[in-house]
Amino acid sequence: MKRFVLLTFIILSVLTSCDLILPDSPDQTNDPDYGGDAQEIFEVRNGNEPYFTESDYDHEPGWEYYSPLDSLGREGYAMALTSYSNMNFDERPSISQYYPSGWKQERYDSSLVDGGWIYNRSHIFGRQLGGDDIRNNLMTGTRMFNADASGGMVAFENMVADHMKEYRDHEVLYRVTPDFGGDNLLAYGVLVESDCLDCDDSADFCVYIHNIQPGIVIDYSTGDSWLSSDLPPSQDEEVSLEDATYILNTNTMRFHELDCSEAPSPDSQNYRLTDMAYEELVDAGFTPCGTCRPQASAQSAA
Length: 302
What we know:
The protein is an alpha+beta fold. It has two domains: 2-210, Extracellular Endonuclease, Chain A (3-Layer(aba) Sandwich), CATH 3.40.570; 231-301, DNA Methylphosphotriester Repair Domain. Helices cover 16% and strands 22% of the residues. It has six helices and 14 strands. A six-stranded antiparallel sheet has the order 1-8-7-6-3-2, covered by helices on one side. A four-stranded mixed sheet has the order 13-11-12-14. The radius of gyration is 20 Å and the shape is elongated.
């Protein structure tokens, strides 16, 4: 029943899917242009169809691949042709000796983060599906990104694991591609693709999972984080609409043009007007909205 509910949610989400991310190479990145509610942790991409090419299927069962770390120490994509016989059922050994890219651990109130600590060492190729406990298969992910049962990494890993437990002769092609959006040390999120070979589509999907934690602001360039209520002083002052330069979403850390359809509504707890300049907002950790696409040159001209 849980799998059916999640699948239904995925199908409905196709109607609101955003721009695509194409994992043509482990170096390709894509700012997710995420301007929505921070509770919407995942989005369906490409009509829920994986981007696999014919050559991606040319592997023997049990094959796994983990990208080497790049020059900034960041993780690339992980991919596997897995099945029930590849799954891990033993207790996971300690992985605390590994420090993935963007690991700036902070503790928050448990009302904001389950367990208090914002970051988990998240397996790129899920451990229960057969993923190895190695540095190249670990990335920094928020607690919500890693463990949220309604749309985080574990939700989709569970979907595939449940399928393979029920159909032990089935094989699944699985790939996860972190999206660092340029030179960031912390990924904006990941693209997760799954295709069950020679079977129905109950383990097939293509989703983008956002690396977010509601109520907490994240600087993806470094991995630093802070409470969304702890904004720079100039943002705590009341700003009139007449004097405002942009609308802020204090949960997603996006800034929007005043007429942007993706901006939060005035009655939202995440809504705030600001008179800060484009460059000041970027320096404070905000990102321009991908829909209205504010431009620095326009602000400088003003």
